[in-house]
């Protein structure tokens, strides 16, 4: 099939799905053994620092341009797992007071309150949680909300999820008065990225990787587009993100014809998505054409921790290293 027909097959049935929709799905909590022949990819994350206490007050510039003064970080309402993961690494996990319903981070799951954070989230709902600080993670979803919250007196900072993880780490740390700790954390993550890039540079060829997810619109299975955390990780590790061909930024539906035309060599998904699919049988039901691809024919399904594959944050370096090493092992055979 020509490249033009391949792209047409990919995009013909694609409906870009807002990430906010995915936040409404529950996250499974029980891990399961992988089917025979599948590969668990991942490394323990090593970016822990000593438990820290916020040094307040601080005055920071939110990504929506507002200057925000922060005086109390005892009950933080957080809009995304990337920020929560950074708070955990800074020793501030116990201060996560409210988190998204589908949070995969430990502090997010243990939060006192859970909330659906999306484009329609209103200030009234956030204020009802009685937090002392709101930290959003998306200009698209949280800029207007934060502006409204500030008018009521609740300090609100947005740290946009589309920027590089080291930048997010520095900004999050600064909000809590922990610039030195944040700088150390960011530099360590940058070191991991460089190691992953070095491994990727040694690969004899680039492997086509398809990231699939169970948490699309209405529960439909989707593939990761060019702006997803998974796409960034795949590219950093030296692979080709098949979902880029769909010309979609977020998670996107894929036709059977498009699946075959994409010809992925690796299928990549998270632990929680595997459980949401219902295990191996659920994967083949959701993507019946997958068995006609090189990945399906070779039973080459790789599973990663959620925080390393779906979140651009403190775990991204460990994820990139693990994926680059796995791709090296595959292409060196």
Automatic annotation (TrEMBL):
Gene3D superfamilies registered for this protein in UniProt: Nitrogenase molybdenum iron protein domain
Location of the Fe/B12 periplasmic-binding domain: 75-333
Signal sequence segment: 1-31
Keywords: Signal
The organism's place on the tree of life at top rank: Bacteria
UniProt protein name: Iron complex transport system substrate-binding protein
Source organism: Ottowia thiooxydans
